[in-house]
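hey so i finally got around to running both of the ones u sent me last week. sorry it took forever, my laptop kept dying halfway thru and i had to restart like 3 times lol. anyway pasting them below in the order u listed, first the sequence line then the C-alpha cell line for each. didnt double check formatting much so if smth looks off just lmk and ill redo it

first one:
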Amino acid sequence: MEARSIVIGVEGMTCHSCVQTIEQHVGKMNGIHNIKVSLEDKNAVIIYDSKLHTPATLQEAIYDMGFDATSAGSNPQPVLPDTIFLTIPTQSALTSKELRSTLLKNKGILDVKMSSDQKSAVVTFLSSVVNGKQIVQMVPGVDLSISAPEVTPGTCEDPSWSHASSVLLRLKVEGMTCHSCTSTIEGKIGKLQGIQRIKVSLDNQEAVVVYQPHLITAEEIRCQIEAAGFTASFKKQPRPLKLNAVDLERLKNTQTKSSDTAPLKENTRNVSDTKTAVFRIDGMHCSSCVLNIQSTISTLPSVTNIVVSLENKSAIVKYNPNLITIDVLRSAIEAVSPQTFKVSLLDKYENVALFPALASPLKSVKDAGQPLTQVVVINIEGMTCNSCVQSIEGVISQKAGVKSINVSLANSNGIIEYDPLQTCPEDLRSSIENMGFDASLPEKTELPVGITQPTRKEQPESAVPTSKMLQSSVAKQESKSMSKCYVQVTGMTCASCVANIERNLRREDGIHSILVALMAGKAEVRYNPAVIQPSAIAELIRELGFGATVMESNGEGDGILDLVVRGMTSAACVHKIESTLMKTNGVLYCSVALATNKAHIKYDPEIIGPRDIIQVIKDLDFTTALVKKDRSASHLDHRQEIRQWRRSFFVSLVFCIPVMAMMIYMMVVDSQLSDAHRHLNMSSEEMEAIHSSMFLEHQLLPGLSVMNFLSFLLCVPVQIFGGWHFYIQAYKALKHRTANMDVLIVLATSIAFVYSFVILLVAMAEKAKVNPVTFFDTPPMLLAFISLGRWLEHVAKGKTSEALARLISLQATEATIVTLGPDNILLSEEQVDVELVQRGDVVKVVPGGKFPVDGRVIEGHSMVDESLITGEAMPVTKKPGSTVIAGSINQNGSLLISATHVGADTTLSQIVKLVEEAQTSKAPIQQFADKISGYFVPFIVVVSVVTLLAWIIIGFVDFEIVEKYFLGYNKSISATEVIIRFAFQASITVLCIACPCSLGLATPTAVMVGTGVGAQNGILIKGGEPLEMAHKVNVVVFDKTGTITHGTPEVMRVKYLVESNRLPHNKMLAIVGTAESNSEHPLGAAITKYCKKELGSETLGTCTDFQVVPGCGISCKVTNIEPLLYRKNKMVEENNIKNVTLVKVEEHMEELVQPALIIDADLPTAVTSQKYSVLIGNREWMNRNGLLVKNDVDKAMIEHERRGRTAVLIAVDGVLCGLIAIADTVKPEAELAVYTLKNMGLEVVLMTGDNSKTARSIASQVGISKVFAEVLPSHKVAKVKQLQDEGKRVAMVGDGINDSPALAMANVGIAIGTGTDVAIEAADVVLIKDDLMDVVASIDLSRKTVKRIRINFVFALIYNLVGVPIAAGVFLPIGLVLQPWMGSAAMAASSVSVVLSSLLLKMYQKPSSEKLELRARGQMKQKSPSEISVHIGIDEAGTGTRKLSLMDRIINYSRASINSLFSDKRSVNSIVLNEPDKHSLLVGGFGDDDDTTL
C-alpha cells in the first residue's frame, strides 16, 4: 500500500460549511487517509492510497459536489510511513486476524504484519495522521504495548523513501554459483534490523544494500554475508549519514547496538569536532516546553549539549557537524511535540535560507526526499546512424532499473538515469557491448539526481561540480532536442532563390539547418522550438519575397486530432468539453477554442481512437466533424503558378503584338528604302523625305513621333502590370543583398524603358526634327517571352511531380467499418472518414474499391492490383491471413480486413513521405550548381556593364564597325546616338539571355522524375545523394539469409527407401507430416508444410506420445491418417474418371494414348485405422533407437550435407523408410541478378554469418566467386570498411537488424522491403518487392538519371557559355547579332529544354527478367567449388581450395560432363548423387527424385 499527497485547487467555496462538506464527503471515501481544505488558499491537501485513487478520481469527486477542481500544478508526492512494534498480550480477546482487520479500518494505518508466533505486530502508519499512542488505543479490550520500534521508511516496497536518512553500500560477493545463493544472502541479510533493502546480482557478483547506520554497521553486514559462507569485500566506502526531519522522532527512542554506539559516542564527545548554533524559538509558553525540547534534542547522538531559554526565546546547541546539519537540527526542534514551534537561526546563521515551518501535512510531504537515482555517461563507439541510436535506446530502456536513456550520435555517448539498487554502470556498459558496440565508462560515472535538500552554506564543495555537470549535460540534451517542420514555398524560380532562402534563414536564431527543394516547392527546417516556431519561420521566408505556409507535419499524424465542434455558446461549454475529455482515459491534452469552434486533442492511440473521442463530445450534445485535411497533391501540381504565368503571358502578348507589328513594319520599310538607295540611286535627302512622310514617323509634337508615342503607351502597362511581380521579387532580393533571375529581368526592362523615356524627353526639349530611336519595343517583348518560358516551365515541372501526385491520389478518403457478431456474422456497416479508422477495426472492401489502410484479410478471397505501389503488373491473390496495402485496388471479391496500420503508419503514407523527402534532398552535384548560381547574377551584371563600356569605346574609336552591323542605321541619326543605342542594345541582350534557371533546374528536375519513376517501379530512393552515388558503385555485397535465399528452410528432396507396395508414398507423407506438426523446430515446420502441400490438405492425423530430444530428433505415435488418405484417393478417383472420359472422346488417337500414365493410382477398397510408431532425426538418433543406417544411405546424407542441406531420416514401425533433404532455398531470380550485375561491370560479393560449407554451396548456385563466411554482425561493418579502404564504392544489400550498421556504412545501402524496420531506416534505397532484379534496376535507374543530369548540365552550360558572348557582340565579325527580345526568347527556351530533357526519364523501363534471361541464355553457369574464394570471419586470408593439378582438372571435367548427361535419367535402384541442373535447384523442383527407391 502506497500513500501519496496531492494539492488540488478548489474553486467555488464561499464559507466554512463548504470546507466541512468537502472534508466530510471526501474523508469518508475508502482509501483517503487525511484531507485538509483551506478556504483562504482555495485548495485541498489530500493524503490517499495510490492503489485506490488517482488525482483525476479525487478531482472528479470534488467536481461531482458542485465545485471546480483543478490540479494545482503539483505532482503527487510520496508520504513517508513510520513503523512501530506492538506486543500482543497472550490472553487477547481477539485473534491476530481480527486484530489486524480492526487496525486497518482506521485512517492513517497502511499495513499490519503479524509475526509467525502471533505475539507481535509491525504496524506501518502515517505519523501526520495518527501517532503511536492513538494506535495502542484503537483496539478496545486489548492491552497493546509498544516495543522497541524499528524505523523502516519504505517498508511498502516503494523506493520513494528519502535516501538522506539511509546509506548505500556496495559489496563484492565471491563464491556465488546460482540463484539460490543470491536468495540465501537476500533472505538472511534482509531480516537484519536496520536493513531497508538488498539486491544481490549473480552476474556482477555484487550486493547493493541500503541500511540505517544507527542500527547496523557496514562491517556487521559484511560479517553476516561471510557467515553465510561467501567472501565479501567493500567495493566503495559507505556514504556519510545525513538525517532529515522525518527521522528525528524515530531516532529519539532507537536502541542502537553496542558495536555501533561506542565509536559514535566518542565522536560526539570530541570537543574539537563540535560547533555551536543559536536558534530563536517562537511558540514556547512554559517550562514544560523548554524541558520537552531539551530532553528530545539531547537524546540525538550528534548533539553534545543544548540549553533552551524561555525568556530569550532561544536555544544554544552544541553538535557534531560530521553527523548532522543545521537545517536538520532546526527541523528536529520544529518536529518536537506538539509541533507548533517556529525556529529560525540567530548570530552568524541568521542569513541562511531556511525551510518554512511544518504546519501542515502537505509541507512535511513537500520536504520528503525524492527516489534515489543516479546518472552515468557511457562512451559508445561504433554507432553509424540513427537506427543504432534507436536500437540502443530501445534495448537499454527495457532493462530493470533504467529510468531514462538519451543516446547522442554526435557526441558518441549515452546519458543513462538509473536506480543503483537494481543495476550498475558496469552492467549497463556490458549490455551495450553485447549489442555489438564498443562501450566504456569515464572516470567519474555516478551523478545522484532528484535529491530535494534544503539550501545551506555548509553544502560540501564536492557537490557543486556534480550539479554543474548535470546541468551542462541537461543543457546539452536540450540543445539536441531539435524539431523538424516543412514549409511550402511558392515563387521560387531558380537556384539563386534557393540559396537566398537558405543563406538568410541560417542566420536566424533557433534555426539549426534548412534544406530547400526548388522542384517540390518545400523547405525542410530543423529548429529549436524553445527559440522559434514554424509560423515565425514561414514569416521570415515571406519577408524574403516568397509565399510560405507551414505544411502539416506527416510524422505527427498519430495521436493528434483536429475537430470542428458546433453548438458551443459560452466558455462553460468549452470547460465542459475540456474537463470531460481530460477525464477520459487515453486523452493526453485537449484545447477547445470558442472563437474558431475548433478542438485540438492529443491522445494515445493504443488506448483510445478518434471515433471514441468524437463520441464523447457527441454524448455532451455537441455536433462535431473532422477538420478536412488537404489530401490532394495541390502543392505539387503547380496549378496556381501555371495560372499566374499564363495570365501574365497573355496580358504581355496583348501589348506585345502591336509593338512587334510596328517594329516589323519599320524594319521592312527600312529594308526597301536601303534597296532603293542602292538600286535606284536615290539621294539621302530623298530617303529622309520619304522616311519622315510615313505615318509612324509623323511628329505629333516636335521630337515625338507617332511610332514612339504608340510604343510608349503600349510599353507602360506591360512595364507596370506585366513586370509588377518581377519588381517586387527583385526589390526583396536586393533588400537582403542578394541577386536573382528577377534582378536581371528588372535591370534589362528598366534600363531599356528609362533610356528610351529620357531620350524622348531630351528630343522633345530640343524640338528635334529627327525622331530618336528608342527601346520601347524591348520590355513588352521581353516580358512576353519570359512569361511564356515560365508558363511552359511550370507545366513541365508539374509533369515531373506526377509520380508523387499519383501516389498521393491513391489514398482512399472513406472506409466502410463493419461490426461482426459470432461466427463473423455481419451486424452493421458504417461509412467513416479514413482518418477515423482505428487499429483493430474490421474494414469491408468491395470489388473495385481501394484499401483505405494496411491490414490482414480475415474473410474472403480476391485478386488485388498492387501495381501502383509495388510495380508488380500481375494481380496478387488474397485469402484469409494475407496482408493488404493501403491504396491497392480490390478486383473481384469482397474482403473483410483487420486494420493493422492506420494514418501516417500505412505503407503508402511511408512511401509518400520517403519520396517527398528524397525529392527535397540535394545531390552533391546540385549543391555545386547552387553555388555557381549564387555568383552567376552579379557576374552577368558585370559582363553587361563591361559590354556597354566596350562598345561605346569601340564605337568612338572605329564607327564603321557599328555602322556596318547596326540594323536600321540611317544618316538621319547622329553617330553618337547610334553608338550609345548599339552599346545599350548589346548590354541589355546580355542581361536578357543569361539564365541561371537552367543550371538550377538541371539536377532537381532529373532527381524528381528519377525518384518518381523509381517509386512507380517499387524502388524507393531516399534522395539525390544515393541516386548519384549508386552509379559510382563498383562492388555489390549481398547478405545471404533472406536476401540471396528465402530465409526459411524448405524441403528440397524426398528419398523413399522402401517399395511403394509396402508403404505408399502418400501414406508416408501423411505419417511424417502428422508427426512433425507438433514440432516447433523450423525444420519440422518445413516438413509439415511440404506434406500438407503434397497431400492438398490443411489438416493431418493425430499425434500422441510426442517426445523431442534437442540435437537428435523426435519420436511419437501417429493415428487417424486414413481419412486423410481416403480424401486424397477420392480426388485421385475423380481425376481418373475425367481422364477416362478424355480417352473416350479421343478414341481416334487411341494409339497415342498411354492409359497407365493417365490413371493416377489404384484406390484402396477399405479404410482401416492403425497406430504407427515414428522416429524422425539424424544418424545418432537412429543408432540410439537400434536402427542401422546403411552405407549407401549414409553416403546420400553426406552428399546432401556437402551441398549445404540438412538430411533427416524417417523410420516407421522400426523400418528406415525415407530420407528428407531440407535447405534454405535460393531465390529463383538470384542467379540472373548476379549475372546481370557482373555484366554491368560490377564485382559481386557474398557476406554471411553461416559456415563456409553452406556459403560455398549458395555461392556456387548463384555464380558468386568471392565469399566472406562466418562474419559476425558487428564485423560486417568492418568488412564493408575494408572494401572501401581499397578504394571501392560499395553497395550493401540486406534485410535484417544485423545488416543495418553495414547498410549505413556502405556508400549505398539497399534494403529488401520485406526486411526489418531498422534495416529500412538505415538504407538509402528500399525495394518494396522482395525481388533481387530490383537491385539491378536501382543501379540502372541511377546510371540513367545521372546521365540525364549531365546532359542537362551540358545544355545549361553550353547555352550560357555560347549565348552570353553572342549577346555581348563577340561574334559580330561573322554577322551574329542578337536583339534583346531574341535573348529573352532563347533564355525561356533554355529552361524549358532542360525540364523537357528531364521528362524523357519518364519513358524509363525497368530491365525485364525475360529479356535478360534471353540475353544470358547459355552463358549463366554455376561456379565449381575450386573457382570460389572463401574468406573466414574478419580475417582477410582466403580459404579457397588448393590449386588442382592438370590431371585432377581433367578428371573433374569428365565427371561433371558425365553427371550432366545422366542428371535427368531416373534410377530406380540407387540414389542419384549428382548435382541437379540449375533450374531445378533454383525452383526447388522435386520431380526427378520423388519416387526413387533404394
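and the second one:
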Amino acid sequence: MDVLCGSPFWDSNITLHTDSPDLTPCFQNTVLAGIPCFYFWGALPFYVYYLKRNKRGYIVLSALSKFKTVFALVLWCVSWSNLFYSFHGIIQSKTPPPVYFVMPLIVGITMLAAMLLIQYERLHGVQSSGILFIFWFLCVLCALVPLRSRIIGASAAQDQLEDRFRNTTFYIYCVLILIELILSCVKEKPPFFSPVNFDPNPCPELNASFLSKMTFWWFTSMAIQGYKKPLEDKDLWSVNEDDKSEMVVQRLQKEWDKQKQEVQQKKDVVYTKTSNHAMNHVVDGLEETEILLSSNLKQKKPSFLKALLRTFGPYFLIGSMFKLIQDLLSFVNPQLLSVLISFVKNKNAPLWWGYLIAAMMFFSAVLQTIILHQHFQYCFVTGMRLRTGIVGMIYRKSLVITNSAKRSSTVGEIVNLMSVDAQRFMDLTTFLNMLWSAPLQICLALYFLWQALGPSVLAGVAVMVLLIPLNAVIALRTRALQVEQMRYKDSRIKLMNEILSGIKVLKLYAWETSFADKVLEIRKNELRVLKKSAYLNALSTFAWVSAPFLVALTTFAVYVSVDEKNVLDAEKAFVSLSLFNLLRFPLSMLPQVASNIAQANVSLKRIQYFLSHDELDPSCVETKLITPGYAVTVKEGTFSWAKGLEPALKDINLLVPTGSLVAVVGHVGCGKSSLVSALLGEMEKLDGEAAVKGSVAYVPQLAWIQNATLKDNILFGHLYHAQKYQTILEACALQQDLEMLPGGDQTEIGEKGINLSGGQRQRVSLARAVFSDADVYLLDDPLSAVDSHVAKHIFDKVVGPEGILKGKTRILVTHSITFLPQVDHIVVIVDGKISEMGSYQGLLQQNGSFAEFLRNYAPDEDVEEDEPTIVEDEEVLLAEDTLSNHTDLADSEPVTNEVRKQFLRQLSVISSDGECPSKMSTKRRMCDKKPPELPLPKKGPSEKLIQAEAIETGRVKMTVFWQYVKAVGPLVSLFICFLYCAQNAASVGANVWLSDWTNQPLVNGTQQNVKMRVGVYAALGLLQGLIVLISSFTLAMGGIKAARSLHLGLLENKLHTPQSFYDTTPIGRIINRFSKDIYVIDEVIPPTILMFLGTFFNSASTMIVIIASTPFFAVVIVPLAILYFFAQRFYVATSRQLKRLESVSRSPIYSHFSETVTGASVIRAYRREKNFVCLNDMKVNSNQKSYYPGIVSNRWLGVRVEFVGNCIVFFAALFAVLGKDKLNPGLVGLSVSYALQVTMALNWMVRMTSDLESNIVAVERVKEYSETEIEAPWIIEDKRPSEDWPTQGEVQFANYSVRYRKGLDLVLKELSLNVQGGEKVGIVGRTGAGKSSMTLCLFRILEAAEGEIKIDGLRISEIGLHDLRSKLTIIPQDPVLFSGTLRMNLDPFNKYSEEEIWKALELSHLKRFVSSQPAMLDYECAEGGENLSVGQRQLVCLARALLRKTRILVLDEATAAIDLETDDLIQMTIRTQFENCTVLTIAHRLNTIMDYTRVLVLDKGVIAEFDTPSRLIASRGIFYGMLKDAGLA
C-alpha cells in the first residue's frame, strides 16, 4: 500500500491519539475512494440479472432522468480529468504515485457504469433505485473525511498549484454526488406500457421511492386516515398484482402440474416395460401389471413441498438474506458497549472517540431495525401468498374430484384444510428462518461470551439447556389441558344452544334453575382446568423471566470462584448481560419452531393427499358426436360410483330422441338418480359409451341454493331478461312466494336456503334450470318436495307437453304416477338395469314390472293428495321457534300472511348473521334496546324484525376497563400493580448491585468479599423471580374470578330475560356472547394484560435507570415520548379496524367454499366452474385487502417505535460520553445495556395496548347482555301460594287484554270468561285469532296490558313466576327435548321416584319402547331428541304432563297431525287420566273436541262464541262453518 501511495497508509498518531483526528492521504485515496466502487461492482451482476427477469415496461425519458444522467456523465469527466492531470504530471516529469492513476480510472469507470445503469433501469421501469441510492449514499459518506481534511488543509495555507487543481475537482465531485443522492430520493413516473391500472385505489407501495419502501413511509397515509375515522372497506388499497389470488395460484398450479408430470413420466416408463402384453385388454394381464406397478411405485408421489419451494422459495430467500445481515448486526452493539465502557475507564482518551461510538451504536441500531423489518415483510408476504395459493389450489381441486374421493374427505375436513392447514403454513413462514438463524445466533453469542469469560460460560449454557426440557414439559402439559378445556367449552356451548333454542319450553315448565346448574357445573370444570393452566403459565413466565438472570448468575458465580484472579469488571459483566439477553430469544424459539414444523408437516401431508385425489374424466360423456336425431344415447353402459365398487348401473342401452319427454321410474334405490349422474359424467364409466348433445341443465333431488339473492340464484350468472324471467316465475309458481318474502326477489337467501321451505327451494332450483335455456334437461324428482296441486301446476306449465320446455329434451325422474300418461317414453329401472321401455299404454299392456310398480304406488297416491305437505316443510322452520304466534302457517289468511312474512323475514336475518360466530366477534348490538316497532307497510328489504348489530368503532371507553377491574376486584388489581413495581425494583436492584460490584476497587489484583457480592446478587434476582411467580399467578386468579362473575351475570340475566327478547334477537348473537366473548375473557385478556404490564413497567424502569445515571437524559424524554405516543395512537386505531375488517372478510371464503363443495355437481352440470373459481379469487383478494395493510401496519409501527428506541440508545450513550468524568464504568454499562433492551419492550407495549383495546370489547358486550331487562321475580317469598293450590282449577279472565311487545297491537281484547273447575274447554279460531296467546297469558309469558286472570280466586300477577308455572301443565305444540338422559327430560329436578316415572311412561304408551332399550331410563336423547320419532317425542311431553299432574292442563295440539295413531293415544290418555282436571285444548282438528263441555271460538282477539258444541252447531255460527269446511257437519 505504501508503495502504491508513495506515503504511509496508516499513522495512529494522526488518526487516533489526538484531539483533532484525520486519516492519512493514502488511506483516503485508496480505501475511502474504493468502498463505493467495490460495493457497486459487487451488487451490479445480481441486480442486472434481477432486472432482466422482472420487466415492468419502460419509463418515458423525463427531466429527472436527464439530470441524473448528465450529472453522472459530468462525474465521469471530473474523475478522468484527474487521471489526465496525472498524465500531464508525467509530461512535466513530476510523476505522481500510482494511486493517482489507478483510483481515478476505477472511479471514472464506476461513474460511467452508474450512468448506464440509470438508463437501463429506466428502460426496465424502475421508478426508484435502491442500488444507486446506497451507492450515492456511500460516496457522500466516504467523501466527508477527505472534505474535512481539505478544508482544514486549505486554512493551513499549504497552497500549491497541484493541490489546487485536485481540490477544485474534489469540491465539484462532492457537490455532484450530493445532488445525485438528493435526486435518487425522488421517484420517477410510473412506467409506460405496463398493464394499465384501472384501480380506483391502487396500493402506493408500487410507486413508492426506495427510502419510502425501506421505512414503510408509504403506509402513513392509511395510518392517518384510520386515526381520523374508522377505516371501511372502500378505504383499503387494492391488492398488488403479484399477490392476487389468480396470479399466485396460477404459478403454484404450474409447479404442481410439473411435479405430477415428472411422477407420471416415471410411471409411464415402468408401465410400458411391463404392460406390452396387456395392451389387448387381457384382463389378467392388466391385474398383473397393477401389482407390478404398485410394488415399484411405493415411494414416488408428486411432492407438494417441492412445488411450494419452487414457487415461493426465491422470494423467501431474499428475506433470509436480510435475516442473516440482521443477525450479524445484532452482535455489533454489545461489542460497541464494551468499547464504550473501556473508553469511560480510560480517563485520557480523546472525547471524539465517545461521540463516534455513540454515533456508530445509533447507526448500527437503525440499520438493524430497517433490515429486520424488511425481513419480516418478506416472510409475512410469503406466508400470505402461501395461504392464498393453498386455498386456491384446494378450491379448484374440489371442483373436479371424483365422488369416491369426495367421500373420503368430508366437507368439514376440506374446509379445515383451507382454514387450519393453510394457516399453519402461514404461521410457519414467520419463524422458518429461525431454523438456521437460532443456531447461528447461539454460536456467535457463545463465541463472544467465551472471549469475555472463558470456560465459565459453559455453566450458564448448562442452565439454559436444562431450562429447555422444563419449558417443553410445560408446553406439553398446557396443550393437554387446552384439549380438555376445549371439550368442556364445546359441551357448555352445546348446552347453551339447546337452552336458548328451547327457552320457551323451559319457561313454561319452570325448569330454568335445573339447567342453570348444569351449565354452571360444566363451567366449574372449565375454570378448574383454566386454573391448572394458570399455574403452568405462571411457572413458564417465571422460567422465561428468570432464565437470563439465572444464566448470568451461574456464569458470574463460577467465573469469580474458579480463580480469585478473575475480576468481574463492568465491561465483562454488562457485555455478557447484553449477550445473554440476545441468547434468550433463539433459545425460546427453537422448541416452538420445531413444533410448528411438525404441525406444518402433518398439514402438508393432508393437503398433498387431497390434491392427489383422482379427478373426474371430462371425456367420459361425449358432447360433440352423437347419432343424428337423438339428444342422449348410452350404449352398453356400465357405471359405478367409484373404481373399486360394484357397478350401480349395468348394460344400459338408452336412446332419447331430440325434444322428447322421458320419464324414469322405479323403486327407491334402484338407480334412477345414478342414471342422471352417469349422464352428467359424475360416475366412473367402466364400459360402453355415453353421449349427451349440447348444454345441460340439472335439477338435483335435494335443491342446492346459494347464499345470494333469490334473483341471483335463478339467473345463476346468465344475463337478466325481464319478460323471460317473469314468465318463468309464473310457471314455477314462485309469484306468491315472492310476495311473502320481505324483499321480493332481492331477499337474501341464507346458507343452504335456510329461509326457504323445501318446496320453495325445489322451485327455485327448477327456475334456475329453465332460465339457463339448455338443450337437455335432467330433472331428478323435482316434484316430490312440493304439494300435489303445485306439482300439477309445474308439470303443466313447465315440464309437460304444453309447458315452457316443450321442444327441449327432458329426462324426468319421478315417483308420481299421475303424470305418466302424458310423457312420450317411460324407462323402468330395476336393480340398476333397464327392464322395460315404451309408452304408457304399451307398458301397461305388457303387464311387466311397470304394471306392478303402478299397482304398488296407486293406493298411496290418494293419501298424499290430502295431506298438505307444506306443513312439514314449515316444521323445519318451527324448530327455530322464533315467533310466539306461529300456530298453523299453512293457512292463507291475510293475518297469517303477515305473521308468516315476519317469520320468514326474521329467519332471513337470522341466517344472514347467525351462521358464523366469528363474523360477529366485533359487532355490537344497537344501543337502542327497544324492540322494533310495529311492522310498517312492506317496503322492499328494509323491513326487519331483528335489528342489525352495530360495529363498535373508535376508542374503547375507560368505563369498560373499570368494569373489568371491578370484576377482578379493585384491591387485587392494585396488589398486582404493586407486585409488578416490586418485581422491577428487584430487577433494577440486582443490576445496580452488579454495577456497584464491578466498580469495587481491586486489592492485590483481586476483589474482596466475593461471596457476599454473589449472595446479594442471587438473592435480589431470585426475589424478582419469586415476585414474578406470585404476580402472574395473582393476575391469573383475578382473571378467573372476573371470568366467573361475568359469565354468571350473563347466564343469570339470560334465564330471567322475558320471551319477547328472544323473539327479536337471533340465537347466534346470544351464543356468540357465551362462546367467543367468554373465551376472550377467559383466555385472551389475562395474558395480554400480563404482557402489557410487563412491558410497561420494563420500559418505565429503563427510563428511571437511564435518568438516574445520566440526569440530562430527562430532557430528550419528552420529545421521544410524544413521537412514541403518536405512532402508538395512529397504529392502534388503524390496526384495530384492519383486524376487524380482516375477520369479517375471512368467513365468506369458507362459507362460499363449503357451499361450492356441496353444489359441485350442479356447478359442473351448468359448466360454471370458471365463474366460481373467479368468485373464490375475489373473496380471497378481498380478504387480502385488509390482511396486507395489517401486516404492513405492524412493520410501519416497528420501524417508528424502534427508531424511538434507537434514539434512547443513542442519547444514553451520548450523555454517558458527556458525563464521562463524573460517571464510573459500572453505571455507564448499566444505563446503556438497559437502553439496548428497551426497543423490544416498547414495540411489544404498543402491540399489547392494541390487543387489549381490541379484546376488552368482549367485556363490554357481555356486560351489555347481562343488563337487559328481566321478567318478574321467580319466587316472591311473602306471596307464595299454598302447596296444593290450585285445588279447584277454576280460571277467570276479567277484561283481559294483551299485546306481544310494546308498540304492537293488542292480540287479545278485553276477554272476560269463567271456566269452572274440571271443565273441558276447546279453543278454536282461524289462524292469528289469538288462541296460543291465551295460553301464553296463563303462564305469564305475556304480561297483561290491562285486566287480570285469577286461578281459584288468586291473582296470578301477584305470585312468583315459578310458583305459577310449576302449578300448571302444558303439552306444547312442538315437542322439545334436550340432550341428556330420558329421565332428565322427564324430571330434571329428580322430584319423582322410579315407580312414578315408569307409571307415567306406561300411561303414555312409551313403556315398551323404553324397557326395550338397554339403558332403560338412562337412554341418551340426542340434541333436540333427534333419535326419537316425532310421535315418540310428543309422547314424552305427555309423560311429563302425567308426572306433574296439576289441576289445570293446557293442550296445544300439534298443527301437522302427528300420525293419527299417536294422536288417538294422547287424546285417550288425557280423557282417562285428567278426568277431574280443567283442560283447555287449542284444537286444529275439530273431531277431538266434539265431546268437550264447552267450545270457545275466538276471532281477531275477541270472543265470538262460547257455548256447548251442540248449541253452537244449532246456532249455525262460525263454529258450524268451520265444521262444514272440515266435512264434519
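quick thing i noticed on the 2nd:
Residues 278-295, 859-945 have pLDDT under 50 and may be disordered.
anyway thats it, ttyl
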